[in-house]
């Protein structure tokens, strides 16, 4: 499967994966009320909570919090059911190269960069994945390099 796109809903284990594999998720539309609700609770900066106030801000308009983008990314990953036993992170580097705006439709694409079976825990290993969250114009709005714990297929 090296380099081929794989779809979610399959629950892949460590031995099912190979470097270069690409996976994709479903989509999520970012609505104004959702952006404001998230920001009011978790990141109450004016450019996330109020259109009029956002006009005089760095962005010049209402934009989603990067943490909101990260949360949507996580939901899309979990809903994809790509990895057996879920997405268990052990390390992450994240950047937000462009803002997410109301009406943007996000999707996630990931590429497996490295696979490292554990020597001390034979029931699992780690994978390093490049994860890009893209908008409807295929512009990267969030990029992560993350290391995930992945279980091996259980033996009978």
TrEMBL record:
Entry-linked InterPro entries: HotDog_dom_sf, MaoC-like_dom, MCH/BMMD
Superkingdom of the source species: Bacteria
CDD domains to which the protein is assigned, alphabetical: YdeM
PANTHER family (UniProt xref): BETA-METHYLMALYL-COA DEHYDRATASE (PTHR43664:SF1), MONOAMINE OXIDASE-RELATED (PTHR43664)
Coiled coil: none
Organism lineage: Bacteria, Pseudomonadati, Pseudomonadota, Alphaproteobacteria, Hyphomicrobiales
Start and end residues of each MaoC-like domain: 24-130
SUPFAM superfamilies assigned to the protein according to its UniProt record, in alphabetical order: Thioesterase/thiol ester dehydrase-isomerase (SSF54637)
The protein, known as: MaoC family dehydratase
């Amino acid at each position: 499967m090296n380099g081929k796109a794989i779809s979610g809903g399959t629950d892949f284990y460590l031995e099912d994966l190979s470097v270069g594999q690409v996976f994709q998720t479903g989509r999520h539309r970012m609505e104004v009320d959702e952006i404001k609700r998230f920001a009011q609770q978790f990141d109450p900066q004016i450019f996330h909570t109020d259109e009029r106030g956002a006009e005089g801000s760095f962005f010049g308009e209402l934009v989603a919090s990067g943490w909101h983008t990260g949360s949507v990314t996580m939901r899309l990953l979990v809903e994809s059911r790509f990895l057996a036993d879920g997405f268990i992170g052990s390390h992450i580097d994240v950047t937000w190269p462009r803002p997410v705006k109301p009406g943007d439709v996000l999707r996630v694409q990931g590429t497996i960069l490295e696979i490292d079976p554990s020597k001390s825990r034979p029931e699992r290993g780690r994978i390093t994945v490049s994860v890009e969250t893209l908008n409807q114009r295929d512009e990267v709005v969030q990029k992560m390099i993350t290391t995930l714990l992945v279980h091996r297929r259980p033996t009978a």
